[in-house]
Amino acid sequence: MQNTDVAIIGGGLAGSIAAAMLGRAGIKAVLVDPFPSYPPDFRCEKLGSSQIALLSKTGLAEHTLPAATLDGEVWEARFGHVVARKPSDQHGIMYDTLVNTIRTAIPADIPVVHARVTGIATSADRQKITLSDGDEISARLVVLANGLSVALRDMLGLERPVISPCHSITIGFDVAPVGREAFDFPALTYWPKRSSDRLAYMTLFPIGSAMRANVPVYRQMDDPWLREFRRAPEATMRALMPNLQGMMGDFAVVGPVKIRPADLYVTQGHRQAGVVLVGDAFATSCPAAGTGTDKVFTDVAQLCTVYIPNWLATGGMGAEKIAAFYDDPIKTSCDARSLAKAHHLRSLTLSNSLAWRAQRWARFVVRLGLGTLLAIRKRLGVRSASQRSAVPPQPHFDAATR
Questions:
Q1: First to last CA, the chain
Q2: Closest listed residue to residue 217, CA positions, set 197, 232, 241
Q3: Do 39 and 111 share a domain, yes or no?
Q4: Are residues 130 and 159 in the same domain?
Q5: Residue 22, in any domain of the structure
Q6: Where are the beta strands (DSSP E) in 79-200?
Q7: Could you read off the pLDDT of 63-107 as tens digits, one per residue?
Q8: pTM score, two decimals?
Q9: Which of 98, 116, 193 is nearest to 155 (CA)?
Q10: Regions of the chain with pLDDT less than 70
Q11: Nearest-CA neighbor of 172 among 122, 127, 217?
């Protein structure tokens, strides 16, 4: 029987950050995950400025970002036209690289057990975890960070009613230019012209030397369109996005095409003694809305900096302690924003009511105006720099010469 204060089940993004944060804070913890190295998984593939700000609160941003690729500039296209070219600080990184990089920040005195959890018994005092290798762990608190896994959910009597089945489907793949070394753009985001296309947007961004594509759509998994995309991705993309060829030139999809559906759910029956859920183990988000890492970083930062130290300072681990985390205003606000953004983006993409059509056109006009302003400022800046460089240098006299 291994004894610890906190047992973290699941070594994905949430679990690995929790292990690193608790270890750095000097809190005894054990991380349980069957994979010595996190395997390739089609999930989060880039971090924006808001996610980086949240990651900084965990103390792991400086450790993580060197493994990512900064785009520097993004071209924005709406209705088949490039409307803006603006500075960008998005960092592309494959999910397994992100997780494995964070794992290297886990202090050496935090044991990482490579096994599956086959049993769990919870109480208001201590929790017992049974592993697939026959070992057991006794902990004051269990942090459940095992994502979409259902086995422990059933053991603990948790329920996950689906709020929106197959809310979105995200397609991921690499693209490469044909007949030249690189694309003209550092990164590109393309918003659709027609709601009938059921396309949220397409985003192209660099990861290392590759150009990665993420294409969220609103369809069902049995839609023949998905099979056609797998069969002929380049032709399907050109048909879906007018003038894409003019922006990208000749291109080819390289490597596998990965397709990931996403259901939206929020766990029920979770206010239990001795166990707390974070990330997807508690509630899912829509990948198209890009709020998954917001939720993970917020959950883990609040849990590890505010609640776990306070919980461990007093005896017991009753349900009333655990409930305080779920009622945390920062967490609940983040969860609400994530859910609202998921539904807003879907309606903005699919709805043909006058109000939603007006929103789409308003976004086009605003982005076009901002893009034009940025272009004018850039040209004026270049012209001003040219004029300054054309002025002959003035003679310099030091005090001795005067």
A1: 85
A2: 197
A3: yes
A4: yes
A5: yes
A6: 81-92, 112-113, 117-121, 127-131, 136-144, 162-177, 188-191
A7: 999 999 999 999 999 878 888 899 999 999 999 999 999 999 999
A8: 0.89
A9: 116
A10: 361, 363-372, 374-375, 378-402
A11: 217
